[in-house]
Amino acid sequence: MVQLVSKAVTVETPHFKKANEHVIEIGLSQDVLVPSATLMEFDLELKSHGEGSESRAGIHSTVAGLIPRSNVLPLTPGVLRRAAELSKTATWRGSHFDTLIAATGLEFGADSAITTDRKFAKLGIEPVF
Hints:
By secondary structure, this protein is mainly alpha-helical. Helices cover 55% and strands 8% of the residues. It folds into two domains: 2-71, no CATH class; 73-128, no CATH class. It has helices spanning 2-9, 16-28, 36-48, 53-66, 77-86, 95-107; strands at 34-35, 72-73, 112-114, 126-128. The strands form two sheets. A two-stranded parallel ribbon has the order 1-2. The longest helix is centred in the middle third of the chain and has 14 residues, at 53-66.
């Protein structure tokens, strides 16, 4: 999802059009949900790529207009427990947010995620894009 949102707001990426379609789908569908950990990871990505606080706030305002609050899944103790369990399988570099996102999906009954990251299949979530 982080890839999806960042591709949707970055016109230069090759997946811009498809990513925008998916983000619009999130806003129109009650069935497409976004883990709160995804939004946190997105902010960290923006910050690590040099986006300042004002720029990040503007981007998040845009995203808030596209993704209704009711479509954002919370980070819960059950999600954290499941993420800790998944971390045994997720041994790749940078897997912390992957396990949080996959755990959120699994805890809330998802079987797939809109992502180009194929590693999610190892965590029990089918990647689709």
